[in-house]
Amino acid sequence: MSWRAVAGRMLGIAILVAMAATVAWALYVSQQRPLTDDASVRADLIGIAPHVGGPLTELHVVDNQEVQKGELLFVVDPRPYEARLAQAEADLQVEKREVDARRDDISAANATLRERQAEYDYADDYLRRVEPLLSRRFVTEDNVEEARTRRRAASAALYRSRQELGRATNLLAQDGAVNARIEAAEARVQSARLDVDYCRVTAPFDGYVTNLNIAIGDYAMEGRQVFALVDRRNWYVIGNFRETYLHDMRPGMAAQVYVLNYPRRAFRGEVQGIGWAVQQPDGPTTGLLPPVQPALNWVRLAQRFPVRVRLIDPPSDLPLRVGQTAAVTILGPP
C-alpha cells in the first residue's frame, strides 16, 4: 500500500473522529447551555378603563406616547358626578339635623317616661293604702275601684311611654359612639366624591400608551378599556424550550438574551419560572393555557414549554418593544 493511500485513510479517520467529537460536544453544550431562538420580548400590559361613564372632555395623550406614573391621561365629564356629590353632602347635613331632632325626641320621651313612672308609683301607692281600709269600712267599694282604675291607666300610660322611648331610640340608630344614619350618609358622600375623583384618569405606572383610538367627545363606558398601557418598569422574555432541556433548568439560573433588533448586544437575564402546562392541539381549549406549537424534530414532535426570563437592568439606550424576536441561552447557576 502506498503512502498516499495510508495518508488518505488516516485523514478520513481523523475527519470521522473530529465529526464525532463535534457532535458529542454540541450535544453536551446543548444540554448544559440550552438555547432557543423561539422567544419574544414581553412586558405587562393593562387596559386603561374609567370607573365612571361619560363623554371625554379632555385627552392629554396620543398613541405611543411615554407617560409617567400619576400623569393625567384623560378626563370624563365630571359635572353629573359633582352634582351628585353636592346632593349627597346636602343629604348628610339634613341627616345630621334629623339625628339631632331624634336625640331631642329621646330626651322628651325620657322625661315623659319619668313623669308616667311617677304617676304609676303614686297610683300604686295610693291603691296599696286604700285597699286595707275597705274591710274596716273607712272607704267605699267605689273608692277602691277608682284607685284600681287609676293604677291601670297609669300602668298603660307607662307602657306607652316605654314603647315611645324604644321607638325613638331605634329611629336614632345609635350604636355606641357610631350613628348608623350618619355613617350611611357619610358613605354616600364618600362614594360620590370617589366618582368625582374617578373622572380624572391618571397613569398607574411609568409606561407607553398603545392602541389609542378615542378622541374628545367620545363616550367612555364604565369599565370598558379605551387603550392599553405597556408597563416599562419590568421587561422579560418568554422562550419556548424543548421538553428535553427542562430537567436541568431551575428558577434563578443566569441567562443571556439577544434581541433581533440589537444582534451585537447581549442582555443579562434570570430564569423566573418554567411553564407547567401548555394547550394541547388535540385537547379541549380552555383559553387559560399558552398555545405553543411543537417544532418538527426528525420524525417526532418535541413539545416546547414557555420559560420566563426576567431581563436585568436592560440598557436605557436600547428601547424594547413587546413582541420583539429574541434568542435565549440558559447559562446555568449564577
Summarize the amount of helix as a percent range: 40-55%
Report the portion of residues in β strands.
25-35%
Assembly state (oligomeric) = single chain
Order of helices and strands: HEEEEHHEEHEEEEEEEEEE
Distance between the termini: 57 Å
The overall pLDDT, averaged over residues, is: 84
The rough form would be described as elongated
Arrangement of strands in the largest sheet: 1-10-15-12-11-16
Rg from alpha-carbon coordinates: 42 Å
Tell me the number of structural domains.
3
| Biggest beta sheet attributes | 6 strands, antiparallel, barrel
- Tally of DSSP β-strands: 16
- Protein structure class: alpha+beta
Specify the number of helices.
Answer: 4
Low-confidence stretches: none
